[in-house]
Queue: 2 jobs
Job 1
Amino acid sequence: MVEQLAFNQLAPRSNRGGPIRDFMWKNPVPTVDVIIEKDDKIVIIRRKNEPKGLALPGGFVNEGEILEERAIIEAKEETSLDVELKELLGVYSDPKRDPRLHTITPVFIGKPVGGHVKGGDDAADAFWMNIDEIKSHEFAFDHKKILMDYLKWRKQKGTYWSTK
Amino acid sequence: MVEQLAFNQLAPRSNRGGPIRDFMWKNPVPTVDVIIEKDDKIVIIRRKNEPKGLALPGGFVNEGEILEERAIIEAKEETSLDVELKELLGVYSDPKRDPRLHTITPVFIGKPVGGHVKGGDDAADAFWMNIDEIKSHEFAFDHKKILMDYLKWRKQKGTYWSTK
């Protein structure tokens, strides 16, 4: 039904910039985040832009880009680490997860394969955090929920999403 | 970098429909697909609309919707089955995976919990296919790749994506 509705809704709006644009306006925006892990530590960034606070490295996916390649680019830009992706933790799509707009974010788990942690680009800072410390911190977006799911994943694997 | 670039690019376009719309125009569009399994069979649909052919049930995600809820709605509309989601198989984002536009699709694995298979909405037909038959069929989009990953998942679990 969505498919038909979405295309049907194009007609009255086609004078405002073309049908494709209006069609896409109805959709959430894809982003991607990465949990970089090594032993009992993960990489956390401190965001330079709003919403500020601690968060996982990640960012918006551009049209024409492959998700996993954008994940590696964002990890490098924000943490200075070369990262190899290992697994997908889950996909998070709660419309309230980002105060700016509705985003859908797949979250990868990866490992560092080069470089040293240093904040860059949208990250004012980047550092290793012991997983025992996760519970005692607040995080931007729904990254606390994502990280609590990650702690479950370390014990029992599985895949996760916003309402699970 | 994406985040900053994307917002910076808004200004010159703001006379063409508002910044948010132009911002989103740069992003792939999220869809969601579901592999409904029972024993050694999965549900396949025959698409009513272009691109025609065999495919997994699924569809576009609307702004404001939670991904997993849209997955359950699409499964019901296209196969008449009530579905419970069990795991996430992966996320597929190859820009060429859909001939119409760049889509990103998380793929859930679910089980039927009610109803009988019957095509509806965008599905001209829906039916159970034995997993042994997957290899001998062609599918729309990148659904053959997704289904080959699903066959791996049945043997060794794990999570999958376009370039893995």
Job 2
Amino acid sequence: MKVTSRQIVLSRPFITERGARLHQPEVAFEEYGRASGPVVLIAHGGLSNHHAAGRYSDEDPAPGWWDGLIGPGLAFDTDRYRILAANALGGMFGTTSPRTLDPATHERYGPRFPDITLVDIARFARAFLDELGIEMIHVVAGPSMGSLVALQMAALYPEDVGAVVAVATAGRMPPSGMAMHHLICNALSMDPQFRDGWYDESRPLPAMRWVAQMMRVYYTHDRAFHRIACAPVADGPEAQQQRSEAVRRFLVGDFQLDARDRDPNCLIATLRAINSYDLGRHSATYEEGVARIQCPALLMNIDTDGEFPPEHAEEVAAILNARRPGQASTRVLRSDWGHLGCVRELAQMNQHIVSFLRGRQ
Amino acid sequence: MKVTSRQIVLSRPFITERGARLHQPEVAFEEYGRASGPVVLIAHGGLSNHHAAGRYSDEDPAPGWWDGLIGPGLAFDTDRYRILAANALGGMFGTTSPRTLDPATHERYGPRFPDITLVDIARFARAFLDELGIEMIHVVAGPSMGSLVALQMAALYPEDVGAVVAVATAGRMPPSGMAMHHLICNALSMDPQFRDGWYDESRPLPAMRWVAQMMRVYYTHDRAFHRIACAPVADGPEAQQQRSEAVRRFLVGDFQLDARDRDPNCLIATLRAINSYDLGRHSATYEEGVARIQCPALLMNIDTDGEFPPEHAEEVAAILNARRPGQASTRVLRSDWGHLGCVRELAQMNQHIVSFLRGRQ
């Protein structure tokens, strides 16, 4: 499927929860499927982008990250639905963010970009859909941060969201995940070249190279490391040294590419927003906040995910099903990859989503 | 229990597996209990030291890290045993390491310190005991790296080791753990002030401060973060922000102390040694290598340990019990703390070790 990345400017300023005003907000997005079909909104992960499916050209080494779910006859059937994937507010791939120009100053926002919350990201996605004249969202879906945005939208706009599919998810950000995000932010801001966010954009921040390695360790399970580094190496006196070297190569490989695509200010803004995520924020209790979600929900966490283990999906489902039995379904995805399974275990996901949506025509 | 840190110089040079010669090797150690009792050797964790029990003075804020296991009537009963805890080769607390002076040059070894393996650390511990005229080791015990050293010694000297107690352990270093170690080494060596290991010793390396934070995240389970940051905070609009801030404080607190005690070259040498650990290294197969251990073994891993989950203890025990039924016992320690449980869950450990040793009088 050949796709193009598009850009629009919203006709109204966006006002953050804390009252900051973003003028002429831009949104980078892609669109797949039937222009007149029911709308499916795909929300991406924290370090990801709006290129959820297809290829820009035949030379692309890989398609979008959920290409195995988006296409003719697939879970998000392009013969049926109008599928939109937008870059999140604060993201680094074209949407208004620390990287984009502030129309008031004609300089990049940089560290002056206002603090945003996960609720802001959800509201901004809604503003994007409003701009396209879309009121009803048949399904909102996503992995990782995308799943949090999906659940948040279902809670913010319960009458307008028909169903939610959340992969590698939770009802509020777990504290160990918050710790990892603080770690990343600290690594970047402690880099002498960070300069309070006014770093030289023309070359990758040294700390970013290291952060890219760390994320590889954190988001990859031991079983995947075993496949990469241990299974190919037979026992023997040099075996452990070879395994150690294979691990090291996995860690540092292609980091140049990673570093180029990762803007420190955007990463910090995004991770802080993720840390703010708590469905209970605007309610008297957490449970009441979760229960604002009225639509059917499919929650799929990965058995080896250290950041969002299955118990977090179970918790949200239990709260929903206590009030509306059968509203929420959970599935445990089997993966060697840990959190990265949310963009790798597409066959399993496709099957579960097809079943889920079949019941929701 | 009042204790003192002592130092001896070995009467013979130590020769590493790779053939490097360390002259006048020094060993820092502590001794507890009955001078004439059966010998218990305590091996410490990778970032830890030989201060396993007691206090140097009444003003010490805390005792040694296994104080709850070492004392009158405790698992390692000071009324019965002669208990020795030595700083490992390459460690930063007084034993020959990158920090100590090379007698040949009268300068610190620094990055010229030879590469050492986990086998070297085990052999060096043996050389220390030889110097004290000790042949038979009644029990060798330790957490984390100490458990690897303990198992390695039991495999190297099967006739001289009476029993082994290994906490948070494995038969070879898991690849995700190797990845974490590479990460730490990379963070340090990528610091511009590292200068190939010739950093200014008088002040902490900037990257070390950050590495200390990262280790806090990696070795602490989400449940412990929950106790620290979430349980004390009631639901509400500012709750998540307060939790995020509590997590951040835990991450950065007391890092000055951490950084001062952690020498980058020593850390790198130690982590590389740990990565080399593989009981199968000198045997035709891994299983044969593990089976060199002939003594009774108690293997206790922690349910929430991401680095050494219980399956690693089960694997070693299964290999041993296949050849000598009943040789190995495993216990799963329950902890909110993840890997850090290996120095926190002392009550559980004490009970299991007492039972284990009772059968081994």
